[in-house]
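Field: COMPLEX_INPUT
Field: COMPONENT_COUNT = two
Field: RESIDUE_TOTAL = 755
Field: MODE = joint
Values follow.
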Amino acid sequence: MKKKLLSAVIAGFMAATPVMAELTFSALSYRTGAYGNNGIPFADGYLDYFTLLQERDGGIGGESIRVIECETAYNTEKGVECYEATKGEGVLSYSPLSTGITYQLIPKATADGIALHTMGYGRTSAKNGQIFRNVFNFPANYWDGASVGIKHLLDINNGDIKGKKVALVYHNSAYGKEPIRTLEELSKKHGYELMLLPVDHPGQEQKSQWLQIRREKPDYVLMWGWGVMNPVAIQEAVNIRYPMENFIGVWWSGSENDVLPAGDKATGYKALAFHAVNSDFPIFDDIKKYVVDTGKAAGAGDQVGTVLYNRGMYNAMLITEAARKAQEIAGKSNISQADMIKGFEALEMTDARMEELGLGGFGPSFSVSCENHGGDGMVAVAQWDAGAAKWSIVSDFQASDMSVIQPLIDEDSGAFAAENNLSPNCS
Amino acid sequence: MPDQLIYAIEVFFNGLMAGVLYALVALGFVLIYKASGIFNYAQGVMALFAAMTLVGVMEGQVPFAHLINAVLGTKVHHFGWHLPALVGIVSTVLVMVVLAWLVQRVIFKHLVGQEPIILFMATIGLAYFMEGLGDMMWGSEIKKLDVGLPQGINLWIDEATYNIFDYGFFIDNLDIVATIIAITLVGSLVIFAQYTKEGRAMRAVADDHQAALSVGVSLNFIWIMVWSVAGFVALVAGIMWGTKSGVQFSLSLIALKALPVLMLGGFTSIPGAIVGGLIIGVGEKLFEFLVGPLIGGATENWFAYVLALLLLVFRPQGLFGEKIIERV
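Field: COMPLEX_OUTPUT
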């Protein structure tokens, strides 16, 4: 009798309670290990944006948000474990935050029909959406970065860098090697000499590379670094008195963490950027009000407005906007993983929408399509001012040189399609 | 003189300087291994912890501020002072002595007589604990360390070599300071080990724990002393490396640079750590300069181990290590 009564109560309770659906997202973050001090502000920005939507708006389109955070320590094996452990939770989108993890997850996520969003990292040729159906790397990728880096050199040399020597100091990993092919092709087009200088993980010791730079005197140095490699490189550049305005890092070499250890002499160092690098946006007032001041911030709340915090927040914003688009297309709020892919594919970030979000001018407008999963590849150049302790965007956002990049994308994505027996498909 | 030879001389001297920095890390390993037979996996993390503590003390950071604020709802972060480097260094040495005492009391006191592998495993646990403790105490963000050491090119050497070779050598002022400090440190340690009562007791403990105990040497005191000295050496290494790169987690990975040095110099020799460091430093830099460009570069990490492995084939105890003969 008691059992029957209990069953009836449970059944009644279940019937009376509305079905509480959730939109589940993943946060493959790294707060530990050699790259943790960069992973923390990114993860904080990423999670705080989801918390903001939950606290201020009650979620997305009326659906609550659930974010599953998993620690990868920037380790590929751990990243794959995180994916395997969480994919059964109905996760709508993964952002692996590592090129190595991305390469491992592309076949897995493709087989599972789950979206991967690799913003500013990962496999560059995933821009070809006809082959990489569920992988998105908007708004910019490494080849866009390499191209705009060279465009910047053209801009400051009246369009002619023929005979100039450009060195690439890069993290000796899948990530660091990504721009090499593009820079080689661009060197053929513009006539500069490319000098390659790999630095092994973690990059604490770079004396050999910088002695070589001192001997061979490249006109410009580009850097694809991460973690401790960045501040050490900047310090070594200061030590050999390399002109800082001729030293340009990719966006992963352009945070406060990278320049602060070198002190005042880091002034003038440049870095590529695909979003704003300061905190003068209304969204930060909301984050402070709804997230930090209520004690719900993912971290201590002291990273808000820093470059990497901004990037994490921007990443989360793009994902949630894709989820909104998916809800709009599906005509329902409780979207599936397949709906989410459609949302990503139809995403359009306009200036007006950015204004509505409190992020007017934070990043360039762009749109995604089935054929183009990488957006418009708009990148700007930022410069560090140690006196004011802040980064400032010092150029316009400009598009990459697709006449060089598109053939490379076609070639690399074509090779992937051949290896995996895929044919271009946009149906 | 051909340009390549001039450049090779510059690389040679920079290799020597890099070797001194590797040797500074290796010294901490040697001290503890010599006195207790423990291969201290936590030596790199001790360098990180010491450097974090130094910055924290100098900048007046409240230890465990994030934890305190999260639990008590307060907003305390700084005491509001900025201490001179010397006061910070002395305070950090005291912290490292307390840490040594805790390590002995909490861990190794209970492991006396255990197999070396057990002791080694305990140091792995200690390394992970200290990683977390350091982050909780001082935060994991990158910190600028400035104790007033000079950095950048030495202009006198630049000018002098320019007059001779028509090419100015680059030698970092920080590396010169590191060399002077390392020579002083090694000299002091050798004198301490050879000529002081405590030093001789340390060597007695290293030879045989039981025999040392039987003649009245306090194992407890010697181990605390050795871990304190290793903590001090870790602080020196942390200052040198932290000044270059800022204080951050990667500082703990400098231990990886010390391993080939130890293999080469021997685990029980203080001068061996220095000579091993110099050979590794010069060897890897010259190899990178001469062979690196032919095979794509980034040879330094693996070449150091190859060099050490080659030596192991001919002299397993390292250049200065003790040859242990055991009856079976």
